[in-house]
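step: validate -> pass
step: tokenize input -> pass
step: predict -> running
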Amino acid sequence: MKTNKVEIVKLTSAEISALWATNINVSVVICMMTHFLETCTDPEILKLLEETKQLAEKHMNEIEQVFVKEKIVVPEAFKAEKHVVHKAPKLFSDIYYIQCVLQMSKFGVASHTLGLTISAREDMRILYKNLMDDVSQLYNHVVSVMQEKGIYVRMPFMNYPNEIDFINKENFLTGWFGRRRSLLGIEVTHLMINAFQNEMGMQLCTGFSQVTQDVELREYFLRGKNLCKHIVSSIYDVMEESEVPAAITWDQGVTNSTVAPFSDQFMLFIIGILSNLGIAAYGVGLSSTMRRDISAMYANFLTKTGAFGEDGMNLMIERKWMEQPPQFEAAK
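step: predict -> pass
step: emit ->
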């Protein structure tokens, strides 16, 4: 009798951890889309939010089926009925909503690609390939809608290279004193990515700080806002010096509402996600730059964001809000 190999090979620690993280992240998307759908007034953006929520619910169902099949406890994650305040006033603009979907789809493509490449079992590779295809399609749809509405922010343009050249000056790596060389295209790419993410984070921290009733969390969110502001300003200074356009414009993202649309636990967790994404992005930016002053700037971002993220994690743990990720058993 032929045995199905997939059925007898257990999931690896990498596969379990990826499924757990994906489940948590998808639950976050569902909660955010629940509030966005209640308050969005733009018909085109509303359709996109519906598509995003339906896709997240589909992915949640597929992942939970794996947990049940493997007899692994399903994470509590975030349930909309517990963490979304029904009929809360609009806290962010419709433009901010679609910017969130853009960032979520980018993160989804990256995280599902990682899930695919760390998976050994064929059914897991197929699962993550399908998740990645779904989110890639969503990303393309979001970009198309934003371009049609004239709100998509492109990376800066540069002249096409027209000859082959080699670096022949040691000062190519410097940046501390004197006239600095112009920025490389790859350096501008990562500076823009980090500026954009911190613009989003600044708006989010602003909104959360004006609706939470917890004084300690309000101070933490305001600290996050100031950190994002510092990072954006530092990046723009570098780009302005090289006369690279760095304008990121949209409408005012935060309304004057003082009613929280989400639980304090959920809002603090979201800021934690942004901190982790920032640390990852600064690491990639650091590895991609060839100017020492920019390397030092990224190192500074990493230090400050790491400390900020750790403080947020401690707030979660103190309030017993942090769910335990999959962990190896302690040695006896």
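step: describe -> Residues 43-70 form the longest helix (28 residues).
step: cleanup -> pass
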